[in-house]
Design a protein that fits this description.
Blueprint: E1 2-3, E2 10-12, E3 22-27, H1 51-64, E4 71-73, E5 83-86, H2 88-91, H3 95-101, E6 107-110, E7 115-121, E8 125-131, E9 136-142, H4 144-148, H5 151-163, E10 171-174, E11 184-185, H6 187-195, H7 200-203, E12 204-207, E13 212-215, H8 217-228, E14 235-237, H9 252-255, E15 262-268
Parallel strand pairs: 4-7, 5-6, 10-14
Antiparallel strand pairs: 1-2, 2-3, 3-15, 6-9, 7-15, 8-9, 8-10, 11-13, 12-13
Protein name: Purine nucleoside phosphorylase
Keywords: Hydrolase, Metal-binding, Transferase, Zinc
Pfam families: Cu-oxidase_4 (PF02578)
Amino acid sequence: MIPLTTDKRMLGYEVLASYPDISCFVTTRHGGCSQGNYASFNCTPYTGDNTACVRKNQEILCEGLPQRPEELIIPYQVYGIKSLVIDKSYRQATEKERYVMLQGIDALITRETGCCICISTADCIPILLYDPTHRVAAAIHAGWRGTVKRILHRNVETMRTLFHTDEKELIACIGPGISLSAFEVGDEVYEAFRENGFPMDYISVWKPETHKHHIDLWAANRLQLLDLGVSSTQVETAGICTFSQQEDFFSARRLGTKSGRILSGIMINK
């Protein structure tokens, strides 16, 4: 990944740096005004943070991007697989209607310019996709439940169906999240992956000292991309563990659910 700002507020992806028609980012914990477990650069509502602080942080974020978004579109996620296409019907909706449309959404897809689609995470895996041929972008929330249900696969299929995306042309960015070494799980989570056809010898390890399985969500999602036909050279994995680097990134396992979130966003520039 590459830093976007000298104050460490945001990071970018090298694999997308050569596409001037888009803006993308991953926020850190630095450079905002929130306090306590939200300190300091929490840009996500819905978390219990002070509303004025969230708005100020969002303004700081928008000012720091190469092109200012018309809107930061941030869904209320529920660890599901439902996605929303941001199109003209969304843009023409009222503020109240937009709020309702964003409830229970874990992935956003758009080809609308100026709309910055975002995903909030704090150990789960944020994934950004870009189809440079048809100028379509997606932001996907892949926690373990979404990964098991192949939310990534479902959204690539939607991009193919609606916008004629060719998987071989996709650019994919797997963002900061909990790593294999930190993500210990119970037997029910391990079995959920196994029963859904994931190669457990590749995406998991058993640690006898803790008597726990560990799952590699980065690898599980990367495998889905490669199985879809995305070139390995067009997949970038941040390799940043939010649990072990909690001073720089929010981690729900460290701070609890009443805490800040990393915001990952992508926008097709005007």
